[in-house]
## 1
Amino acid sequence: MKLQKILHNFQKLHPKEIDLSLNRIKELCKKLGDPQDKIKAISVVGTNGKNSTINAMFSILKEANFKCNVYTSPHILKINERFVFNNKELKDDELANLFEEVEDINNNKPITFFEILTASYFYKAAQYPENINIIEAGLFHRFDATNVLKRNLASVICSCSIDHTDWLSKNEKTIEKIVFEKTSALLNSNIIVAKQSTKHTMDCIKRTISQNESRKKFFNDNFRYSFYENDFFYYEDELGRLKLPVPNVPGQFQLDNISAAIATLKSLNLDIKVEHIKKGITKISNLARLQEIKSGKLKDLVKNNKLIVDGTHNEDGARVLNEYLKSLNCKKHVIISMMANKEHEKYISYFKDVSSITTIDLKSQPNSISGKDLKKKFKTMPNVQYQPSIIEAIKSINLKEGDLLLITGSLYGAAEVLSLN
């Protein structure tokens, strides 16, 4: 109860959920003793693949016996997921005590929810100056609360694509602007650029960071991977070639994220061995990212059929998700709920190889699009129906032996699925 009360208080400190500025976070961090200046950090920016890249790095570092702090957003089931210190999530009472101390120091000054969470993370992270911090940027990066570091070990640029355009003016809803917001303010250290969905996007990134004096590594130019079907793939860079086991997370696109994670850690000269990489990439935890549900209330409804939940919610995410679906030799049924500010038609245009689509309401989010309105946007797709809830949707689908059921469209929707299950 104490934790929930403090979080409720945090949400009342500013009238807006997001207010792009660095003034408030800098002011609070100064009161906290500028803890962000006392840590060793890897910054992770981009649109898609940030969480997967972070978890791949975290898993490898743990195998190499490094202590890590990890800051991600949003959380899926509980806010503790965002606050990992010494390789473990903070418990409720620990998190409440941390928030309470920062709340007192803030003294009711206006600050957004994400900003005070970020300041709290830095405040705690400074207690572990030798730990490696892996920090996910929130919305864009230039005016994101995580962008108050003066130095870092490295910046990782994951796949950039069109998303969150409601925060851009009408004539700026372009990949060029998104790349600028995400990459123009990166620190001078090491920059590792993951595989991008188009050559144009990669070229935009190269132009934007051309004046940055960091040591740079680009996918294809400096590192790459090749995939082989019999349970291994090759990672290759200027230092040689590694034969690695296929990771425990499904989808060949995950090799994009994992190769960027490997390139980042290798660039830091941390004395990470090949065995650490091999073991680490087979133990990656990836909540709500192509996560197979193997037991629980919803799994009981689909019986022996495979049930997957995935938080993909933008066009490029839909593209790589459907590349994975096409690799499966079975019939696929999809349940979708989405937020109102997404490019719904572009998102669904990739779901051409599925047997049915069921739209549902995203009940926990007032800024979501109703399942009925979502169905109208999918009118060009065959076999689209609406159901008001996840359970009713599952019950309405005629699953045959060997069919797959995927629930996707939103991280918030994925959270509802996992909570309900």
Note: Residues 291-420 form a domain with the Protein-Tyrosine Phosphatase; Chain A fold (CATH 3.90.190.20).
## 2
Amino acid sequence: MIIQFLTKRFSLTICVLVLIVLGIFAGIYYFNPRYQTSDKVVSIDNTHYSDEVKKTQNKVIVGVYPINVYQIDTASNTFQMTAYVWMIWKGDIKPNETFEIMNVVNSTMYTKTEITKQKLDDGRMYVLMKIDGTFFEPFDMSNYPVDQQQLTIGFEDAVDTSDDVIYVPDIANTKSDQLTIPGWELKQITYTATENVYQTNFGFIDGANTSNVTHLEFSIIIEHPFMYYFVKFVFPLTLILLANYIVFWMPYAFIETKIFVIGGTLLSILFLQQLYIGKIANQQIVLIDYLYLFAYLSTFLTVISKLCFYKKIENGWEESEAVMWDKMIFLGHFVIFLVIVLGIFVQYLRN
């Protein structure tokens, strides 16, 4: 009686359930506060210099204006960037000549062009440069395709220690108005100032056993648009699984056709999964893998249930009872699929 009650007007119930879920989906997405991109530049100071050291430090103002970001290769953990970099300082130091970008991948492909160098009215030196190159970034893909990534370039002075030189980010003049990254949404720009301590003297026996240098990271925080997740994964996988679940409505006299449809579903899932496998470094397990794992298990359990019920019908079981169980199994699969999809969506909101 319970099964008969739950399966009554089954198709209408499923349609209503899908519409409600889609409504919740759209409402949470479009009315969520994080849907808006922040154009505010954030500065994070993780330095802990003593008052004595601060008195002797030469402060070098560093600003970055990104022009282009391209060739973001998550599989090889690299990206390419073209940007203007400027430095302002006072004193006899030459930070424009001694700074290094620590995560350059290939120095032969990296270019630094000095555009202008002049003395400001207040006596400070101003240098504007243009840099272009390929940079290393250890992408964390565990939340793919709702992952949030950072494109970072790290500045360090190759000559002066942090006792002598410190980088100060130019928050006011750092903008991203000309920057667009196809396939990604720009969320925020951050500067992070730290003191990098190398536990070596690099073989300079007359120096200290450690080397302290000022370190400044310029980071562009990006993420995939949510529609990327929906259109590339949820929508096609939903259609494939629904095509597979058609077998729950087919008469058991067409058992061969049922098996053929399920086999086609399995191949479709395999081909669809290939769309993103090449983007994952070291083939690590990512969030979307759990959705595909369910798709594989659902397909496998579907064929097992069809064969089992067909065998029971051959042994005298009523086909109408098998049909009712089919609808219950379909409902269970569909609900679990929706829970996983919404779970990934919740992870997107939490990023």
Note: The longest strand covers residues 58-73.
## 3
Amino acid sequence: MTDATRTPRVALVHDWLTGMRGGEKVLEAVCELYPHASLFTLVHVPGSVSPAIERLAPRSSVLSSLPGIGRIYRHLLPLFPAVIEQFDLDEYDLVISTSHCAAKSVVRTGRARHVCYCFTPMRYVWDHRNAYFGPERLGAIGSGAIWPVLAWLARWDAGTSHRVDRYLADSQHVARRIRRYYNRKSAVIYPPVDTDFYRPDATVPTPAALVVSALVPYKRIDVAIDACRQAGVPLRIVGQGPEEARLRAVAGPRVEFLGSCSDTDIRGLYREAGVVLLPGEEDFGIVPVEAQACGRPVVALARGGALETVVDGVTGVLVASDTPDALADGIRRALESPFDTGVIRRHAESFGRTRFATQLQSAIGETLSAPPGEASW
């Protein structure tokens, strides 16, 4: 592929850069490993991500020039396939995509190797199609009109899966979906959590709940609001998104919307919280691990990535149903249980950044050194 004595030229590809969520924290760690890489993205809102990412001077598509793109980019989903294929990656020997939408479908040269760290196959057209585009969201006519477009996007997503030599999944849950939708194998490397930064202190927690999340449909923040009302527990919500107005309309006086917060502020909120909530099904869910790194128990839906990050009865409570009743019961049990902060913390330490860096570089090294025809899983 490349001369063994030459350092490969590296291109990083991420779907969009509009804020520091879980995916961007993974990208941040990759950027630190490859500080001389070129970074490509569909949409970049300058100043919205960390200095480690901004330092690579992200190259964005024509979509970034649209007025108000930071608010409307989710509505441009049907354009993403055509736009992602326009990036010119001819000069690169290694492509690393961090993808939950279209980034994995970039076109690279035949000599280059492509490793995809996959957060999930395109959730908008597979598992969460109804949550984003069902009749309850768009009405019967609107939902019916967009359904053929979503079916086409699903075919495109599956049809371009061969553009990746090796898939790395962020959880066993996602690895199963990669197998189901792409018919590809993948190795699991859990996302990195900065356990040096997220750690306990002397703060005494209060009997209150915390949600840290993008305010989008599949996160089920409405369930958290209803559950806290039933449990008689105040709730703080950190995050922004298209669901904010609807959520504010159903929230009562004991729900506080804090908007976007700095990592330092979020760490303080974790430390203060009696319990941190994960009411929806997550691919992995970095928030529960950050909370546990701060010694705080998590109440989460017993599906998806939470089954791999929360130990029921030891580091939190897993609830079987995605109903407010079930979550409220979990909140009560968590607040009444004598969780051991040290045990919770030690569990979170297994998701640290050093482990991630070692495993990622090992997987990439194996892919680069594999003979032609054997790099693809």
Note: The longest helix spans residues 135-159.
